[in-house]
Automatic annotation (TrEMBL):
Gene: tadA
Function noted in UniProt: Catalyzes the deamination of adenosine to inosine at the wobble position 34 of tRNA(Arg2).
Residues the record lists as binding Zn(2+): 56, 86, 89
Species the sequence originates in: Eubacterium ruminantium
Keyword annotations from UniProtKB, A to Z: Hydrolase, Metal-binding, tRNA processing, Zinc
Active site: 58 (proton donor)
Subunit: Homodimer.
Protein name: tRNA-specific adenosine deaminase
Any one GO biological process: tRNA wobble adenosine to inosine editing
Domain of life of the source: Bacteria
PANTHER family in the record: CYTOSINE DEAMINASE FAMILY MEMBER, TRNA-SPECIFIC ADENOSINE DEAMINASE
EC number: 3.5.4.33
Similarity-based family: Belongs to the cytidine and deoxycytidylate deaminase family. ADAT2 subfamily.
Cofactor, free-text remark: Binds 1 zinc ion per subunit.
Catalytic activity line of the entry: adenosine(34) in tRNA + H2O + H(+) = inosine(34) in tRNA + NH4(+)
Amino acid sequence: MRKLSEDEKYMRQAIRLAKKAEENGDVPIGCIIVYEGKVIGRGYNKRNKDKSTLAHAELLAMKKAGKIIGDWRLEGCKMYVTLEPCQMCAGAIVQARIPEVVIGCMNSKAGCAGSIINLLEMPQFNHQVKVTRGVCEEECSNMLSSFFAKLREKKKAEKTCLT
Ligand SMILES: [Zn+2]
């Protein structure tokens, strides 16, 4: 078997976290932040669980990383996220000056790292992020499509029970 690259190794960890979100009925999205070879922030989507639009995987991981580093600036950190960040998270990534983000799969409907807009690489901002896309892409995108397929089936079953 082929040896996993470092990016794939960390993306796998983010995928494992994403699956925890699914256990709570949240869309499976996971995020890891690495600093000097150590994972210092972990997060998975808790939007439904916490009833908060702020509970995205990236923001939760950034909060933890900031505590460990002792700074809101996450300079020297590398973020791994299973799905392309939204406008809120992409904005926070630029604000925190994270130098590098690795993305699993893209989100054509809401992604703000190249799909709808590319907030991470805008020359007009005071910070640009180095972006790598498509690491463990198939795994990340299959995880989402199977989640939504199950959701549709569940809704269909509920409807049938009512009639
Ligand atoms: Zn987000």
